[in-house]
């Protein structure tokens, strides 16, 4: 499913069930230590999403290696790679790309059901709640509150590697295009500088399928400046 949301230059892998009940032979020792005190369900999620990530990295030519997390929980990817992971009940996925193609990636998956009572007000702006009400009137079969939450998670996962700073739910305003399967995130704080330009927001894609809401943002790498050489070289040419 995730491949339907990312460009061809991004490599995606997904799983709808865990790789193994016993994660002993799946994780590297450093990874196993990171989740040694977690409940078995969390250990299996952690292991399976890393199986997905290693498969995706393998398609880019990278040998299997431990994939640990930063203090904030963001994956630490090999040099030259950007990526994102997600997992929820019944789904695990990873997307990676080389830095020549991507500046950042952010993906998220959620069960396609309503958010728990009270959560929407915590994660949304008043303008967004008005927007969701209009969407619900047009297409009541979609749980737009859960889609908004997932899209904001993808926004954060795209933002954080570029800034290494937190982004509050109230610091990005989302609008969702129901017909196109896309969303726009307008940053309400100064955006990261990519390729010498400050970003005002992100554009993403979404789908609802197999009882899941999946969202993704793939921010392309900035275009390389043309190499005109030195004045002396130009004179020779």
TrEMBL record:
Q: Where is the 4'-phosphopantetheinyl transferase N-terminal domain?
A: 30-97
Q: Which residues form the 4'-phosphopantetheinyl transferase domain?
A: 104-179
Per its UniProt entry, which superkingdom is the organism in?
Answer: Bacteria
Q: Which Pfam families match?
A: 4PPT_N, ACPS
Which GO MF term does the entry hold, naming one?
transferase activity
The record's keywords, sorted A to Z, are: Transferase
**Do you know which Gene3D superfamilies this protein is assigned to?**
4'-phosphopantetheinyl transferase domain
Q: Which InterPro entries match?
A: 4-PPantetheinyl_Trfase_dom (IPR008278), 4-PPantetheinyl_Trfase_dom_sf (IPR037143), 4PPT_N (IPR041354), Enbac_synth_compD-like (IPR003542)
- Protein name, UniProt field: 4'-phosphopantetheinyl transferase superfamily protein
The organism is Streptomyces orinoci
* Organism placement in taxonomy: Bacteria, Bacillati, Actinomycetota, Actinomycetes, Kitasatosporales
């Amino acid at each position: 499913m995730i491949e339907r949301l990312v460009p061809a230059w991004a490599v995606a892998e997904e799983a709808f069930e865990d790789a193994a009940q016993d994660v002993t032979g799946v994780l590297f020792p450093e990874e196993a230590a990171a989740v040694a005190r977690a409940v078995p369900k969390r250990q299996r999620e952690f292991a399976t999403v890393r199986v997905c990530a290693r498969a995706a990295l393998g398609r880019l030519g990278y040998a299997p290696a431990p994939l640990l997390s930063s203090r904030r929980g963001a994956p630490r990817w090999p040099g030259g790679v950007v990526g994102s992971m997600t997992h929820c009940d019944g789904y695990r996925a990873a997307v990676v790309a080389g830095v020549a193609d991507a500046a950042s990636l952010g993906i998220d998956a959620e069960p396609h059901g309503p958010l728990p009572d009270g959560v929407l007000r915590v994660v949304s702006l008043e303008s967004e709640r008005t927007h969701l009400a209009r969407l619900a009137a047009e297409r009541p079969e979609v749980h737009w509150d859960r889609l908004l939450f997932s899209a904001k998670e993808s926004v954060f996962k795209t933002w954080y590697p570029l800034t290494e700073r937190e982004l509050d739910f109230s610091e990005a305003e989302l609008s969702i295009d129901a017909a196109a399967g896309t969303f726009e995130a307008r940053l309400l704080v100064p955006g990261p500088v990519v390729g010498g330009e400050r970003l005002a927001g992100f554009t993403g894609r979404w789908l609802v399928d197999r009882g899941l809401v999946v969202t993704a943002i793939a921010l392309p790498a900035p275009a390389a400046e043309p190499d005109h050489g030195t004045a002396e070289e130009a004179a020779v040419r």
